[in-house]
């Protein structure tokens, strides 16, 4: 009998992860045939080809118990937050007797999505109001940054890896990479401290980028969030 699927990568995966399909018997590569990773379109846009991989390519390997597991290592990382499906051409895989795997086709046979991390970022603190686009002297002395992390895939060890104040005139970034806030209950706050407030230059406008890192099934997941530009008016 021809090989049949027993399990495959589904749900949320790290953008850097490999994807796998497990068959019910030992399989080998066919002499021809492609495995096509498709990215689902959004907002009315059509689905697009993310990568076409020949089954004979080294990016496709067979191993595991009794050589039943086919692992696909795309050349590029998946795009966080996007949904994908995989099509496998008939005959790309065979069992040891030469029976062709029937393949997988269509947008629902093998689906998964690339995990995404994000956070809101807002100026906060006592008597701080950045909605007018300015932070004045008294506000800067009380200013904090805060946000809430979105982690729909359930990544673990989620942490802030850096906070970057980006001058909108391109004159240079101010990066905080130590003494970073911890995330508790998906919430975080950067407390007021002259170590970062003193670096903000009067008359310049800054956006704030908060970068995140985490792990999903042993693979790295990253993300970020950005606050709108504010001008330092001290």
TrEMBL record:
Pfam family, one: Big_5
Domain SbsA Ig-like intervals: 10-112
TM region(s), chain numbering: none
Keywords carried by this UniProt record: Signal
Cross-referenced InterPro entries: Cu-Rt/internalin_Ig-like, SbsA_Ig
Protein name (record): SbsA Ig-like domain-containing protein
């Amino acid at each position: 009998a021809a090989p049949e699927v027993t399990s495959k990568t589904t749900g949320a995966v790290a953008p850097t992860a490999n994807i796998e399909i497990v068959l019910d018997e030992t399989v080998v590569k066919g002499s021809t045939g492609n495995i096509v990773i498709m990215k689902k379109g959004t907002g009315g846009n059509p689905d697009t080809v993310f990568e076409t991989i020949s089954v004979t390519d080294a990016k496709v390997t067979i191993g595991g118990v009794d050589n039943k597991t086919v692992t696909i290592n795309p050349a590029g990382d998946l795009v966080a937050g996007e949904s994908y499906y995989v099509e496998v051409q008939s005959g790309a895989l065979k069992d040891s007797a030469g029976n062709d795997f029937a393949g997988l086709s269509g947008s629902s046979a093998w689906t998964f999505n690339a995990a995404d991390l994000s956070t809101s970022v807002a100026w906060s603190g006592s008597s701080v109001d950045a909605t007018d686009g300015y932070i004045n002297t008294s506000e800067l002395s009380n200013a904090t940054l805060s946000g809430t992390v979105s982690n729909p895939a359930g990544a673990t060890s989620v942490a802030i890896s850096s906070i970057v104040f980006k001058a909108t005139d391109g004159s240079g970034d101010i990066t905080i990479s130590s003494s970073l806030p911890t995330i508790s209950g998906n919430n975080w706050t950067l407390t007021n401290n002259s170590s970062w407030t003193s670096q903000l230059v009067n008359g310049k406008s800054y956006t704030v980028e908060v970068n995140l890192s985490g792990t999903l099934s042993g693979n790295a997941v990253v993300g970020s969030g950005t606050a709108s530009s504010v001008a330092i008016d001290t």
